Amino acid sequence: MPYIIMFYNDWCFRCTRLVGAFKKLIDILEPLGVQFASVNAAHEQRLFRTAGLNDLPGLILVLNGHNYVYRENTLSAQKVVDFIRKKLPYRMVTTVDDSNIDDFLNGWMDNKVRALILEPRNQTRLRYLLSAFQFRNRVQFGVVHLEKSDCKEIKERFQIHPNLDTLLIFNEFVERPVASVSMADIPTQTLNSIISSNQYLMLPRLSSQEILEGICPAEWNRPRKRLCVVLITENSEEHNFARGALRNIALQSAFSMEKVRFAYIYKEKQLDFINAISQGSENEKLLRIVVLWRRDTSHIKYEWVHDASLDLKDHPSSDHLINHTKQQIDHTIQKLLKTSEALSYEAFVKNLLDEHAQGFIHNCINKVFGMYDYLVDTIEEQHVLAALSLLGTIAFMFAVGYVMVYFVRAEEENLKAKGELSPNGGAKTNRQQPELRLHELRAEKYNGLIRLLKPGCRTIILITDLQSRPKLIPPFHKAVWPYRKNKTLMFGHMLIDKGLSWYSELLRQGLGDTKTLNINPRNCVGTVLALNGHRKYFCMYHAKHPETSRGVKRMEKITRQLVRRPDDPEVGAFFNDANSDESEDNEPRVLLEGNLLDGLSNWLDRLFEGSTHRYYINYWPEFPTK
Q1: Which of 50, 66, 158, 406 has the most crowded CB, counting CB atoms within 10 A?
Q2: φ and ψ of 275, to 5 deg
Q3: pLDDT at residue 203 above 70?
Q4: Which stretches of 115-239 are DSSP H helices?
Q5: Is the pLDDT of residue 585 over 50?
Q6: Rounded distance, CA 358 to CA 360, Å?
Q7: What is the CATH T-level fold of the domain 3-87, as seen in this structure?
Q8: Could you name the CATH architecture of 209-348?
């Protein structure tokens, strides 16, 4: 049955004002079968969030495993009734008129009793809908609106009073109802009591565990045991006679339905159950009759009715077959109802397979409808507007992208028509890749490359001579190529013959010495200088002298190497060789020109990391003009 749960808080003044309306709602709906409960949201915060509520007081409806939030601003009985009516399963009740009354009543082959509600109004009362929901698995409900003109035959056929509510219940015998009640206002208790007493057919099918529990309830006490006479058949028209015969036997039975019930079962549907009670039967169990006594949910005792078979092929007369079978059944039941008698066999069985379980596709459709109802119930106007805004934005982006692609394609077609674009989509005039320009350091370019550099800019210069320039420029170009896009760098090369005096003065300032240096030009080949014109310092790469933490000592060694001549052993004596930590004999004697720049790439990495030594000077020397 449906539950209505009210969420409140001790300090919620709106909740206090709704107490009277909630009590009135309980007085109206509780007699109809609606259950009520209240929850303090402060103590059950997790339940409050799970229910989907955002504010207090909050009202939710729990129905068929789903919860629905009541979002009306006012709490009135009529609005709550309409709210419950909308959330009940779709097409739970069939609308019946003169055209489909016979089809409705003859549909009992689905193993459901037919309940017909006739009322003088166009809208079905909530109490009838709730009863239909409660018994939906065993009773199929139909509604006749007496005010309509298409139900005259129904009123005449069943002698219906036009101004009263009437309930008619039908089993397999549709000529007349097995139960009826007619009142101006049928109480819910009376309604449910009549339906509950007649919720099974005269010969129901054991199609689920729920029906087995209702027809043959478990009873362990021997004096109060309840017997169930079951016919084993198959779902075929050939066995309709056997089922009809047992139905007539059940109708004429003198035993109380509280003690003995009749039913049938499909062998192919409930094969596990049939195999469990196979002891004591013949090989062919079809159209055989067995009497069951359920001791508990899984333990049953049973007895086969011997010499009783409803197979018409074995008997020349159907009447004789029915009478003989009835006698055998009555004799067996009378014997088994005695307290001293025990059933011959027992077995442990599993639950019956639910033959009414919906298929995969049907479940998917129900889930889709359920999701739709949930979204309609939970999504508010602002959520819809936000979703529409998002969808509109996405659609606009796709539209703009489509228009841009369209214009790009049109432009490409135009260029192809003019011959400015090749058929494969590439432009005929190939774009030149970014090149690395190497400037030669001369007097006219000296200011632009070094003296007048902007702050943060540096120039990297390779020192060569005429003989080594063709060999050294390619590896230098390769080493500095990764930095070609750096706009703070310029690259160049200098012939040592043209800038010897400038280079000598640069080294002298780096050493802080006052003496003039006479440098051997050949020893300078392969040196790389990184010059910062604005901050007046330079860094030096030399193949024979790697970077050390003692920059001054390194400069002294480099200068000694540069000024040394084969024919002048005294040159460089003033550099104080005794202070050198390493012997000149340990330095490599021979280094080919092609290997002078092997370590340049690593040195450039250190340069841009800032780990190379910087030699500061007072001013930039003049570059010779000749």
Answers
A1: 158
A2: -65, -30
A3: yes
A4: 126-134, 152-158, 188-197, 209-215
A5: no
A6: 7
A7: Glutaredoxin (3.40.30)
A8: 3-Layer(aba) Sandwich (3.40)
| pLDDT value, residue 382 | 62
Sign of CA dihedral 11, 15, 20, 25: negative
> 414-440: b or e for each residue (b if 16 or more CB lie within 10 Å)?
eeeeeeebeeeeeeeeeeeeeeeebee
Number of neighbours of residue 340 by Cβ within 10 angstroms: 6
Q: What is the pTM of this model?
A: 0.58
**Cα–Cα distance, 241 to 578 (Å, whole number):** 129
Q: Which CATH architecture has domain 93-197?
A: 3-Layer(aba) Sandwich (3.40)
Burial of 173 (0-12, 13-18, 19+ CB in 10 A): middle
For residues 286 and 268, the answer to whether their CB atoms sit within 8 Å is no
pLDDT at 225: 87
- The alpha-carbon radius of gyration of the chain (Å, integer) is 52
How far is C-alpha 478 from the geometric centre of its chain's CA atoms?
54
Antiparallel, parallel or unpaired: β 458-464 and 438-440: unpaired
Residue 355 token pair: 């033959």
The Cα-based distances of 238 to 187, 283, 313 in angstroms read 44, 20, 11
Count CB-CB contacts under 10 A for residue 390: 10
- The residue that leads in pLDDT, 91 or 119, is 119
